[in-house]
Structure formats: C-alpha cells, structure tokens
Amino acid sequence: MTIREGDRTLPNNRVHHVRSGELDGHAAISGGTVGSKRLWMGLVENAPSSATDNHHHGDSEAGIYVVSGHPVFVFHDGTGEVRLTAGPGDFLLVPPNVPHREENPDPNEPVVVVIARTTQEPIKVSVPELYRLDDEADTL
To answer: What tens digit of pLDDT does each residue of 65-121 get?
Structure first.
C-alpha cells in the first residue's frame, strides 16, 4: 500500500524518518506527512509569557514530553483549579475531553514540547472556561 503526499508517493510498509527541518508546520507524524492512521505527533513551542486558550482535544488522548522550559498545565479537578508545573524531561497525559490550558510564565525562555495524540490530525476545541465534563472524567 502507498500513500500520496503532494508530488511524492510514500510506501506505508516501512519506517518513516522525519528530520527536524522537514516538519510540516508543527506536525512531524500525521496522515499528511507519513500516512499515519491513528497518531499525530509534533513539536510545539509556546512563547515566553504566553498562555493558550481553554480547550480540550475531543476524543483524543495527548501525551506530552517537555523538551525545554517550565510549562504550567492548568485544569479543573471538579473542586477547583489545579496547576501542574513541569520541566525538561517530564511527561504528561491529557485524557480525552478534559478542558485545560498551557501557560508559559517565564518572561525570557520559550517552552518546547513534543506532543503525541491518538488521532492522526490535531484536534483543539476551545471552551469558555475550565470545567470537569462529568463525574467519571479522568484528570491530568
């Protein structure tokens, strides 16, 4: 089986190597880059003194590896806001449908993370506030 990407035909029965200079935006592993069926993986950089909006990733799980910086992951545990500060070498799991926000409080250093999601393309659903979706939802 082969997949088409622009002017290239990529076989889907081999290991694909995506070099850092070949990223498609932030995506390294996706349906568009290497024909992935159930996985999206990429590199994301958050600027100094920045924060994302409140969001969730739908039915997709997100695994995060912190390359550099000290991001803060914010979510609601059903009782109140929880802030998890991470650093280089740390891993985090964001379960499906859990509203959260990523912050970079450092005024000088960007945060760089590698993200893997269980869908081939990134899903980001903005929400007006952090809330727990149901009593059975897992937390970060």
So the answer is: 999 999 999 999 988 999 999 999 999 999 999 999 999 999 999 999 999 999 887
**Distance from C-alpha of 22 to C-alpha of 38, rounded to nearest angstrom:** 21
102 contact partners, CB below 8 Å, separation of at least 6: 46, 51, 52, 71, 72, 73, 74, 111
Query: Is residue 44 within 8 Å of residue 113, measured between CB atoms?
Result: yes
Alpha-carbon distances of 117 from 43, 92, 105, 108, rounded to whole Å:
12, 12, 25, 28
What distance separates the 2 farthest-apart alpha carbons in the chain? 52
Output the CA–CA distances (angstroms, integers) from residue 15 to 10, 34, 35, 36, 105, in the order listed: 11, 9, 11, 11, 38
**Residue 82 bridge partners (DSSP):** 75
| 13, pLDDT greater than 80 | no
Find the distance separating the first CA and the last CA of the chain, reported in whole Å: 38
**Three-class SS of residue 2?**
strand
